[in-house]
Specification:
This protein is of the alpha/beta class. Helix content is 28%, strand content 15%. The chain folds into 2 domains: 8-193 and 318-346, Rossmann fold (3-Layer(aba) Sandwich), CATH 3.40.50; 203-256 and 268-303, DNA Methylase, Chain A, domain 2 (Alpha-Beta Complex), CATH 3.90.120. Strands 2-1-3-4-6-5 form a 6-stranded mixed β-sheet, with helices on both faces. A 3-stranded mixed β-sheet has the order 9-10-11, with no helix packed on it. Strands 7-8 form a two-stranded antiparallel ribbon.
């Protein structure tokens, strides 16, 4: 049966700009350790969460024993190609199997290494939907076997479309594990039924919101012309799409308006913005501003964006839908046994 408690501790691996942290922090958690290697992401992370303790860089160089004890491990680990030989073959050669096999070398196994050493009460992992089907499903079977058979955790997983929380189609897999059998099942979560549209994230451009330079300017806080596509780029995108249509391919730009739902925001958005272009009547369409991208991922307007537009687009395109993470976090919290919570004396953040 679920329990209740005042707070819990967590660590934030492959932290990015802190989208997963935001969801679990909003659910009452306290971060005690962070790892992120990208210096620009660290800049954004620190601007929003502070830096009372150093942020570890390359997690492969961090000794698991040096990581503070924690209740929940969080990781939006990158999905790299997985490859594994048969366990029987490895055993016959006297080689280690599972996540202990260094030749496998993928970043998921860094997560497994830390889970094995620290034995947190629970974990939360996030990845792209295609993780389930990668390599004909073998990749995901390895992950599940590692988490359950080798590490002994009780897990559930679910693909959820972020479009239930924000106006963009963004399917991601969420894997939740508990060290003990609790009865928690991410598939039992009740998801929102009403979808939002882009009007909820776009700058109104009517003076009803304050100016946020360099994204908006003037008395009406209109979007800067910087975000409108040049004639050359707009012509190129239209011609490129026409060639693909003629060849029977599916490529095309995503032209949207206030009542639409966007395609998935990607880390390549800074290149041409083709997946989400906002129509402007008689003008060329425009990219979303970084603030609109932040809103599209569920970040509140208080979220600080201290980096260039290029870096901001990359960061939000690589981030998570915060409200989706928050819902899962809030649903997990009652299942964290109160008596096993790590002492807050260990908190460094």
């Amino acid at each position: 049966m679920p329990h209740s408690q005042d707070t819990f501790t967590f660590i934030d691996l492959f932290a990015g700009i802190g989208g997963i942290r935001r969801g679990f922090q909003d659910a009452g958690g306290t971060c005690v350790f962070t790892s992120e290697w990208n210096k620009y992401s660290v800049q954004t992370y620190v601007a929003n969460f502070g830096q009372d303790a150093p942020i570890a860089g390359d997690i492969t160089q961090v000794e698991a024993e040096s990581i503070p004890d924690h209740d929940v491990l969080l990781a939006g680990f990158p999905c790299q190609p997985f490859s594994t030989a048969g366990v029987s073959t490895k055993n016959s050669l006297g080689r280690p199997t599972g996540f202990r096999d260094e030749t496998q070398g993928t970043l998921f196994f860094e997560v497994a290494r830390i889970i094995d050493a620290k034995r947190p009460m629970a974990f939360f992992l996030e990845n792209v939907k295609n993780l389930v089907s990668h390599d004909h499903g073998r990749t995901f079977r390895i992950i599940l076997r590692t988490l359950t058979e080798e590490l002994g955790y009780h897990i559930s997983y679910r693909v959820i479309d972020g479009g239930l929380f924000v106006p963009q189609h963004r399917e991601r897999i969420y894997i939740v594990g508990f060290r003990e059998e609790t009865g928690f099942d991410v598939n039992s979560l009740v998801l929102p039924s009403e979808r939002s549209v882009l009007a909820s994230v776009l700058h109104p451009q009517d003076g009803s919101e304050g100016v946020e330079y360099p994204y908006t300017q003037g008395a009406q806080a209109r979007v800067s012309d910087t975000y409108t596509l040049s004639d050359r780029l707009w012509a190129w995108l239209q011609n490129h799409a026409a060639k693909h249509r003629a060849a029977g391919n599916g490529f095309g730009f995503g032209l949207v308006g206030p009542e639409d739902v966007a395609r998935t925001l990607s880390a390549r958005y800074y290149k041409d913005g083709s997946e989400i272009l906002v129509g402007q009547g008689g003008k060329n369409p425009r990219r979303l501003t970084p603030r609109e991208c932040a809103r599209l991922m569920g970040f509140e307007d208080s979220f600080v964006i201290p980096v260039s537009d290029t870096q901001a687009y990359r960061q939000f395109g690589n981030s998570v839908v915060v409200p989706a993470v928050r819902l899962i976090a809030q649903s997990m919290v009652p299942y964290l046994p109160r008596l096993d919570l790590v002492s807050r004396e260990n908190v460094t953040w």
